[in-house]
């Protein structure tokens, strides 16, 4: 299985495409829906689902275009069930991006669970702190964690937006992420990939864990 990082939109939000053969799932199609759809078609990929780590505007801007183009479902955590439709909640109004919206998600995640979509299996972690409904998807077979804006190379997600909580974010990282194998690749919502081991060694926010 292969994953591809595609930075999209003015904030260079990382969209990830995880593929197996010609089937794939899409994480956080944040913007530039036509560009993303063209890339998928050029690579002869068949999307099976859109998996959202959270519903801030820069992670959802191309959701509706991709959903309608490929007729696939969208997954989101229950704590942000209303955010797709609401520019105040998803922050697009707050940052002057215009009203960015999408139709309600097709599947609502309420508990930490195993998620199986086609050939892909994930362990879901509810990792609030950056936002109340932040979800992280652990792809054990590939040793990769799709972490959204919870953990970055050398940093952590901002917590000054509505629903943010700095201590809760640190708790999420400590109890969920740092319990994973140290060689786990962390695929963040912005910036380069890193690893659990690297962040344990050098991330100043994780000192003392």
Automatic annotation (TrEMBL):
Keyword Acyltransferase: no
Cofactor: Zn(2+)
Gene Ontology molecular function: hydrolase activity; metal ion binding
Keywords: Hydrolase, Metal-binding, Zinc
Metallo-beta-lactamase domain ranges (all copies): 12-190
Entries under InterPro entries matching the protein: MBL_Glyoxalase_II, Metallo-B-lactamas, RibonucZ/Hydroxyglut_hydro
Residue ranges the record marks as coiled coil: none
Statement: the UniProt record of this protein carries the keyword Membrane: no
Descriptive protein name: Metallo-beta-lactamase domain-containing protein
Organism of provenance: Domibacillus antri
